[in-house]
Amino acid sequence: MKRLEAVNDFVIKFANVNGSGSASANTLFAKSIARMGVPVSPRNIFPSNIQGLPTWYEVRVCEAGWNARRGGADLMVAMNPQTWEKDVAEVEPGGYLFYDSTRPMPAGKFRDDILVIGMPLTEICNATYTDPRQRQLFKNIIYVGALAALVGVELGEVEKLIGEQYKGKEKLLDSNVKALRMGHEYAVKNLPCPLGLQVRRADKVGDRIFLEGNNAAALGAVFGGATVCAWYPITPSSSMAEAFAKHCRKYRIDKATGKNNFAIVQAEDELASIGMVIGAAWNGARSFTCTSGPGISLMSEFIGLAYFAEIPATIVNVQRAGPSTGMPTRTQQSDVLLCAYASHGDTKHPLLFPQDAKEGFEFTADALDLADRLQTPVFVLTDLDIGMNERLCEPLAWDDSRRFDRGKVLTNEQLEAGARFGRYLDVDDDGITYRTYPGTHPSRGSFFTRGTSRDRYARYTEEGTAYVDNMERLVRKFETAKHYMPKPEARPSAKPTRYGAIYYGSTAPAMEEALALLEADGIHLDGLRVRAFPFQDSVIDFVNQHDCVFVVEQNRDGQLRTLLVNEGALDPTRLASVLHYDGTPITARFIKGDIAKRLTALQVTPLRRTAAGGAGGE
Q1: Which among 139, 173, 475, 567 is most buried, taking Cβ atoms within 10 Å?
Q2: Non-local CB neighbours of 389 within 8 Å, separated by 6+ positions
């Protein structure tokens, strides 16, 4: 059997039981590799219950810098008997299986084409610790020490991280270091160290930082000027509201008075939370909510009010697998159409598609500007893969000279000077009207906010012509919105090609790696990462310039493809869906395999009858 050999380019997957304390130990292992200057991309795949069900933690080590899931595992750390067969089957041929050998396993439970490494973890813990909880927790640290020896992770880097984690808690610090060294020493003496998979110190991380998407988006809300957050807990978005509260306690306390310059309300439900956001925005505050698909469903009526009454609202949707409760702790991009057309009647809402935590920070701040500028709900569509995983990304940056864009707001001075005011009067022919904040002027600039039909001066009417005039103006405003949205990013092929690929959001890392893999096999595609809706003309032009464009997304129904056809008046036959929706993050292997198979089929010319009556082909 030929064993896998690789330096700084392999995947380790941990199979654990939820609630066993394994996640912190696995994260410690991943970050130790990054501390050695080697890029690493960890992902936690966990169940929606508190304790007992299977959980996995993937660590992709890749000096080349690819940070999507690759697929497969070169080294499986199998700690969960419930998933043994599945975990063993996932190991690449020639790979490695590390397991707790305290209880003997029948030979039929293993594979002949992988190297099996047994370590009696439970036996070691039982002999060392008397407390059952300690036995479980330190078992995780012991296997981290053993793995460090097996794959060449420097023990000093692991110890530094433990020191940072338990700073000021010397008793915990010492006991964790002792367990780590115990595992390392056992592996050196008794296990086949080193394995063919090795981590070698490099200098490829640079100034990149580990950052969770929800935390980054929360910080973006702070820097974007949000002072009000109303929310209701729902996986996977809850940690964003919690992070916003934490950042506000640092940045939003008045130094002179010690009073809060922010309001955070955990509402009784999602409908109440969006109502509070709309009310605060109507009164001039920058406000937002964070939720997931089920929350958007509940918010839809109020979203329609904000659209029709033209009140800013920023909504961060950390998408998960639906419909209904679905898989609350699995990732998807399945709320694109829900958010684009949220609420009854004819509505359209701007959407932003960040690809990582850094863009989550930037786009959340941008969304607050856009909501004010366009006077409408604006959605930031992240997902669980971005929101609840820490990923290496470029450091966050902020221009201190940047000023908030509050849009068209008339001041007291402008009203006093006789500025013409009609709340729904389009004086600039861009669909965006002027508004006032409550109390701006004692006698001018007031209007009645309503969800019913009205004329240009906010007066109630059911006249069809007034209704049509208003709805057509909203279409003009949506057209204007194109100019303010983040532009798509093109990735031209190295050679001219008739084929293209469109992708967005968390699909981007896997897609960009897949494009490189396809190119290495001689298959060339132009790539375009869509970052916002409404689509700029360049997106539609990209489709029309290619014979076939693959739309790669993580949902069942090809929702972005549907949006492209609906809004771009495109020929559906030009757009081919590549869909991944099992709840795990999409992989480069999946994309490459699907596109290569389809292109092979497209390039096979069927036999056809010639003019002479025979058969021929090209």
Answers
A1: 139
A2: 42, 43, 44, 212, 213
User: How much is the pTM?
Assistant: 0.94
Separation in Å, CA 243 to CA 65, 178, 239, 512: 28, 33, 6, 30
3-state secondary structure of 550: strand
DSSP 37-68: T--EEEEEE--SSSSSSEEEEEEEEETT---S
Cα distances (Å, whole numbers) of residue 341 to 130, 371, 468, 560: 58, 16, 19, 13
Q: What is the pLDDT of residue 51?
A: 67
Q: Which CATH class is domain 211-393?
A: alpha beta
Quick: pLDDT tens for 146-179: 999 999 999 999 999 999 988 888 778 889 999 9
Side chain identity, residue 612: A
Q: Domain spanning 6-198 has what CATH number?
A: 3.40.920.10
Q: SS3 for 162? A: helix
- Residue 112 gets which letter from DSSP? T
The letter for the amino acid at 78 is: A
Q: Give CA–CA dist 280/426, Å, rounded.
A: 24
- Residue type at position 258: G
Burial class (CB in 10 A: 0-12, 13-18, 19+), 226: buried
Q: Name, in order, each residue with C-beta under 8 angstroms of 8's C-beta and a sequence gap of 6 or more.
A: 38, 61, 62, 63, 198, 199, 200, 202
Query: What is residue 615's predicted lDDT score, i.e. its pLDDT?
Result: 39
Cis status of the peptide bond prior to 236, with omega within 30 of 0: yes
Q: Domain residues of the chain, as ranges? A: 6-198, 211-393, 412-484, 489-603
Do 211-393 and 489-603 fold alike per CATH? yes
- Topology (CATH level 3) of domain 489-603: Rossmann fold (3.40.50)
DSSP state, residue 65 = -
Q: Identify whether the C-beta of residue 78 lies closer than 8 Å to the C-beta of residue 430.
A: no
User: Which tokens go with 93?
Assistant: 């041929």
- Own/partner long-range contacts of 324-327 (Cβ < 8 Å, ≥24 apart): 324/294, 325/294, 326/293, 327/48, 327/583
Q: Which amino acid is at 80?
A: N
pLDDT for 282 beyond 50: yes
pLDDT grade, residue 462 (50/70/90)? very high
